[in-house]
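Exercise: predict the fold of this chain.
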Amino acid sequence: MKALVAVKRVVDFNVKVRVKADGSNVDTDNVKMSMNPFDEIAVEEAVRLKEAGKLSEVIVLSIGVKKCEEILRIGLAMGADRAIHVETDKEIETLAVAKIIQKIVEKENPDLIFLGKQAIDNEANQVGQMLAALINAPQGTFVSKIELSGGEVEITREIDGGLEMLVLKLPAVITTDLRLNEPRYIKLPNIMQAKKKSLDKVCLEELGVDIEPRIEILAYIEPKPRTGGVKVQSVQELVDKLKNEAKVI
């Protein structure tokens, strides 16, 4: 049984993101980049399933610039067996990303496709759902627990009212939430071993996916600084401030 895990290279979550002076994009020059944290959880879960004997192979996939190789090597160091890199310098919108992954899925025929529930750069939360629709597979989003047995996967997912349990037939698409696991610390020997593992390059043009942008971004604007809050001593004082200062009632 095989798993494919899609991972994205994003600005590290510890970095304070700034908008370029002309508002054309986010400034990523000389900024630390890392694997999207939700994708890292997805890799960890796939590797744990393999270590438990439930999977025979884990493949990590990334789409983007040449430096995406760095996060693919991290996935290999975590325990993935091999990596696929669809290299491109172009900006790829979420629907095009889903279509590219669809092509890789058609080639590799994985039983499970893992993605993070969202990427921390655009917060789109779309690719997993789009991919499931494209390949006509059941999906489990915001997943916090996985039990894999036979030709089915039982998942627990977070919903507004609490938790929901579902049983999905394989192949299925899973998008991972923070509570699913805590990714492992990668040791130096694993990093060295990862350099010897297979990392295949796939030409974007060969996949035949239309990546023409359909969304026009007019400008990037930083949010206004937040002002500090105040503590009130009574409900009456709160009502008075809402009415006379905030003027919302």
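Check your answer against the key: The two ends are 59 Å apart (CA to CA).
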